[in-house]
Amino acid sequence: ATLLTAMRLRHARFEPYTWIGPVLVSVNPCVELGNFSPSVMERYMGVDLAEMSQAPHPFAVVGRALSGLKQAGGDRTAAILVTGESGAGKTEAVKAMLSFLITRQGARNPRVFDSLVGSTQALEAFGNACTLQNSNSSRFGKLAEVSLHAVTNEVESATVIPYMLEASRVTHRARGERNFHICYELRDALEAAASGADAAFWRTDAVRLAWRNLAHRSVMAGGLRSSPYLSGQPEANGGFAEERGGGTVENDGSEANGRGLR
Fold first, then answer.
1. How far apart are CA 130 and CA 185, in angstroms?
2. Beta strand 240-242 pairing with 248-249
3. CB count in 10 Å sphere of residue 233
4. Which of 72, 149, 155, 260 could form a disulfide with 254 if both were Cys (CB 3.0 to 4.6 A apart)?
5. Cα-flanking dihedrals φ and ψ of residue 155, to 5°?
6. How many Å apart are CA 184 and CA 114, to the nearest integer?
7. What is the pLDDT of residue 105?
């Protein structure tokens, strides 16, 4: 009870992080606090590992891991486990920690930083989806392995291994939830291509009707009443009745006007 009370009070003061021994507990504030901003990263970059490890913050977790590696010497390994329920902030925390690690330690090959941080968008497209709790929920596990140079401690290489993808989401979803982001992004890309002056084929009534009926069947299979790329509902004769007026609002706050992706 004392622990929960302390965390509730810290949450009310917009202090989302709390040390419990070696474990950092994070409570999603559900508002942007700038905890991973360049200025915060710069502040942690300018202190030694011992001082960095004191204040509760994901960057401090990285600092403790680096400090442990420094003390161990020889064949050194360290692991950071990030776990929690959907919407707890795991995805954003991991991205911030990886970015901070590479920025602080430096990379022997600049492409390592671009590849590791840049791959996140591709992984989220194919492995994240909108759920009732979280509009960008990771539906898979992710193991990130980072190797440091034995002498300079610069990041030498990095590998991201996804696992346990919720493949069943492709064909079946709980009511009110969506398929993986990539399904909607591909549909939006095709719609954008169809709007080009040299893409008359994609603008034909037959093709548009086929895409909309396919979209509707996919959405209804997931229990949704609307979609970010549907602007109407199929009529009894197989046609499509356009909705007039403003778009509908999805559970993630995006407007269903035929252009939203997530």
1. 13
2. unpaired
3. 14
4. 260
5. -70, 120
6. 25
7. 87
Beta-carbon-side half-sphere exposure of residue 27 (alpha carbons within 13 Å) = 17
b/e map 159-197, b = 16+ CB within 10 Å: ebeeeeeeeebeeebeeebbbbbbbbeebbeebeebeee
Of residues 250, 242, 194, the one with CA closest to residue 226: 250
15, amino acid identity: E
Closest-CA residue to 27 (of 40, 44, 14): 14
The Cα-based distances of 117 to 97, 141, 170 in angstroms read 10, 16, 26
| β-pairing verdict for 128-129 and 137-138 | antiparallel
HEC letters along the chain: CHHHHHHHHHHHCCCCEEEECCEEEECCCCCCCCCCCHHHHHHHHCCCHHHHCCCCCHHHHHHHHHHHHHHHCCCCCCCCCCCCCCCCCHHHHHHHHHHHHHHHHCECCHHHHHHHHHHHHHHHHHHEECCCCCCCEECCEEEEEEEECCCCCCEEEEEEEEECCCHHHHCCCCCCCCCEHHHHHHHHHHHHHHCCCCCCHHHCHHHHHHHHHHHHHHHHHCCCCCCCCCCEEECCCCCEEECCCCCEECCCCCEECCCCCC
pTM of the model: 0.67
Predicted local distance difference test score (pLDDT) of residue 178: 92
What is Dmax (Cα atoms) for the chain? 73
Please name the residues in contact with 154: beta carbons below 8 A apart, sequence gap of 6 or more: 105, 106, 107, 108, 148
